[in-house]
Design brief:
With 330 residues, the chain is of the alpha+beta class. The protein contains 7 helices and 13 strands. The longest helix is centred in the first third of the chain and has 21 residues. The termini are far apart.
């Protein structure tokens, strides 16, 4: 009897559960499809010609050869023998090239400025400037540190100069040089210790389009958003370091004309191997001499490759060499 009562109780609970589910907020939609009715919607007349998922145009204009997939550009990594902080000199003054981004260098510059014997009168991370007050007692002029991104990605340029209020900056002096050398040693000690501080405000100093390869009138052109002196200095240093072989050799430079004379054998001719060169089947010494020409154009600088002044180099060699230069300078 008890068994029958238990069985009846279980059956009752089962019925209650099922009935509770039927009253659920989730409606049974199994009959929706058979009961569906046809509905007409008007579409625009040109809908068949529209691209439902358009692909935006890219900013990069350099093109690969037909049927050739361009290789991804490797991240630039400084060579192990590259100094962390290197002194450079141009026609105006000495300055520092740092193998760190401006956002990494800015905290170290602030720390250095606060340790000096003159009070800081201005600190502007978005502009990359720190100024010190002049020392009237000793007759020392006010000074300014200027920080900006280097030509190559992940580098920074630091300059230090004296100036007078409401006047142009002063000529680079021994006073400036002494403090710049102290700054160099401070940056070396601070950055080599692995200081990981980064200034978010100084990240506005970063620029990724200082050097870009474009197509212009069916020719390849390497465009610099830099002053002539900066672009010229970086180009000649790169070529002095890398063009020291017979197949790629720096011959001469003419800064007044913005011309760099070099020999460059394309990669496909280099692959002919040792025996081809041994038996004289390689390119002759008189072949593959070109000129890189750096000239101002629309507030920027254009670098082109020419066989002779005004005569473009062969298209394949032009693309190969200028693409290589772009990868090295980005």
């Amino acid at each position: 009897m008890k068994f029958m009562q238990t069985y009846a109780l279980v059956a009752l609970l089962t019925v209650l559960v099922i009935s509770g589910c039927s009253n659920s907020a989730y409606r049974d939609r199994s009959d929706d499809y058979p009961k569906a009715r046809e509905v007409e919607h008007e579409l625009p007349d040109d809908y068949r010609h529209r691209d439902a998922m358009p692909i935006p145009e890219t900013q990069r204009t350099g093109q690969a050869r037909d049927g050739e997939v361009p290789r991804p550009e490797p991240l630039r990594v400084a060579a192990s023998d590259t100094p962390l902080v290197e002194q450079r000199t141009d026609e105006e003054a000495a300055w520092l090239l740092v193998q760190r981004s401006p956002a990494e260098v800015w905290p170290a510059l602030q720390a250095f400025a606060e340790q000096q014997d003159m009070p800081v009168t201005g600190s502007y991370p978005r502009r990359g400037e720190i100024t010190w007050q002049e020392d009237a007692a000793s007759g020392l002029a006010a000074q300014k540190i200027t920080l900006r991104q280097g030509v190559r990605r992940g580098t920074a340029e630091v300059r230090l100069r004296s100036f007078e209020e409401n006047t142009e900056r002063l000529a680079f002096s021994d006073y400036d040089r002494t403090r710049l050398m102290a700054l160099k040693q401070f940056l070396l000690a601070t950055l080599e210790e692995g200081d990981q501080r980064v200034s978010q405000q100084a990240q506005s100093l970063h620029s990724r389009e200082q050097v870009r390869l474009v197509d212009r009138d069916d020719r390849q052109v390497l465009v610099f958003r830099l002053e002539f002196e900066r672009a010229w200095s970086e180009l000649t240093r790169l070529l002095e370091d890398e063009f020291d072989e017979k197949v790629q050799e720096l011959k001469d430079v003419d800064r007044s004309e913005g011309r760099i004379y070099l020999r460059y054998v394309p990669q496909d001719e280099r692959r002919q191997g040792f025996f081809a060169r041994l038996f004289g089947r390689g390119p002759s010494e008189d072949a593959h001499h070109y000129q890189l020409h750096l000239v101002e154009y629309n507030n920027e600088l254009d670098l082109t490759l020419q066989s002779e002044p005004g005569e473009p180099a062969p298209e394949e060699i032009e693309r190969e060499l200028l693409s290589w230069l772009e990868r090295q300078l980005r």
